[in-house]
Write a structure and sequence with these properties.
This protein has about 260 residues and is α/β, with parallel strands linked by helices. The chain has two domains: about 160 residues, 3-Layer(aba) Sandwich (Rossmann fold); about 70 residues, 3-Layer(aba) Sandwich (Rossmann fold), CATH 3.40.50.1100. Helix content is about 40%, strand content about 20%. The strands form two sheets. Strands 1-2-10-7-8-9 form a six-stranded mixed sheet, sandwiched between helices. Strands 5-4-3-6 form a four-stranded parallel sheet. β8, α7 and β9 form a beta-alpha-beta unit. α1 crosses α5, α2 packs parallel to α3 and α6 crosses α7. The longest helix is centred in the N-terminal third of the chain and has 14 residues. The two termini are about 15 Å apart. The mean pLDDT is about 95.
Length: about 260
Amino acid sequence: MEVQLGGRRVHLRVESNKPRKLKYNLIAAREQGHHTLVTFGGAYSNHLRATALAGRLHGFQTVGIVRGEERLPLNPVLRFATEQGMTLTYVDRETYRGKLIPAGLPPHYLIPEGGSNELAVRGCAELGEELGSAFDVVCVPAGTGGTLAGLAAGLRHGRAIGFAVLKDAGWLRDAVATLQQRTYGEVRGNWSIETRFHFGGYAKTPPALLTFVDKFEAQHGLRLDPIYTGKMMSGLETLLHHGTFPQHERICAVITG
């Protein structure tokens, strides 16, 4: 799918990154004999949603450790997770920051927040390999850095740009480099991170962002997720308007929602 954005043609690769991040983790959990998956996420975490669905489809029990207090009724993300069989356990923010596992959980396979670990990087590298040499620039939203780390490592041509969706995300560069180092023993690929288009921080959706998402849907028939892909596409449009990319460069944006 191609769209006109900022006066340029941009190819859209529409697919969820979550199955790629979970693929090798599920294989490892099965090989290690685990029957329960435990992971972390905020109240609007797509990762919790994806883990709950994957658990149901592949025969795992799932537990989601959620940052903050329980709020009823559940929002659509958490409601979907529980409908897939996920048990939600709420912890205070300090406990969550320390990624402490609550007492009383059964033996389990632990998947980190956002699903970003070495196995996730290997899964996302397959996307970069599939893109081959078709594009000079590949853009992707960046939350915990796993997708960008894998995508950049898998590319055989061009460069990857991660659009940070969190405020004060200077740490994300080190996170991506560390994930690649742990996975491959070296930092791989040509990549960078844009930190200017977070729109106030994670889960912040100010009017300007929602206006962009509505306009994009009206023009192209595709509803962007404002938490991740809406921020990336708005940022990409701004960069295109400013002439950031040479005219000859072929641009792809990965729509991960």
